[in-house]
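Still learning. Show one?

>
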Amino acid sequence: MRLIACLCSALLLLSYGSAKADEQQRARQLLQRAVEYYCVQGDIAFAAFSRQGEFIDNEHYVFVVDTNGTLLASGGTSATWIGRDVTQAFEPEVRAGFRKALSGDEGQVLSAEYRWMNAQDGRVERKRVFFQRVGDRVLAVGMYLPRATADQAKAFLNRAVEAIELEPEATLQAINNLSARFNEDDLYLFIIDLRNGRYVAHGYNRRWLGVEFTTIKDPEGKPVGAPILEMMKSRSEGGYGYRWRNPVTGKVEDKYALLRKTGHLLVATGYYLGSQ
């Protein structure tokens, strides 16, 4: 029966979600291989999950917890916690997800986000974990959420400007509604009405709407809005570096904003360079 349930869960995993990003697909594929292997090997599989080998895919690795939250296997930095209750190390959303997995049907693939140390760069970063229950075990694979590149940010800004020029009101509304069209990895948009210097759209925090951009400062008190507006008085496009909170990692990082005028609007996005 367990083998049948595992085979079914593997098929469900193949159809789970869309293969929108290679990283997500790789993480889910690694989870699928781990589930299939565990279905045959049982708990003997823990040794394979916990060593460098076929269940390590760059920064992706398998970890396993039991119904009590005890870590049973890990191919990552959490390996030192094997045998210990690790549930409190995760954010509430992940703990709730594991509880749901343990109480739900086998084969149901769930996901949640949390922060964890990325051994490749030594930073605590936002991570998405995919997991499913097999008997009284929960097998999981996580992926670090990607940082946008400068080229990606430029393309993102170009698409936003084109959309605003084609359908200005609908586009501003979509940005303020946090539409997936205008959120990509750690990229989001903010738009200033140059006639009054106030935010008219923000793709991350709607509390900024109506706020005067000249009042905006970085977390250390350095002006951000005023120098940008001053610079853009004589330019149609430009860039500006400052420090700001990354909504993906939750940390204050160096950021470079890309700026473009269209009509009476200043359209901006920015990519993060990482915390120093």
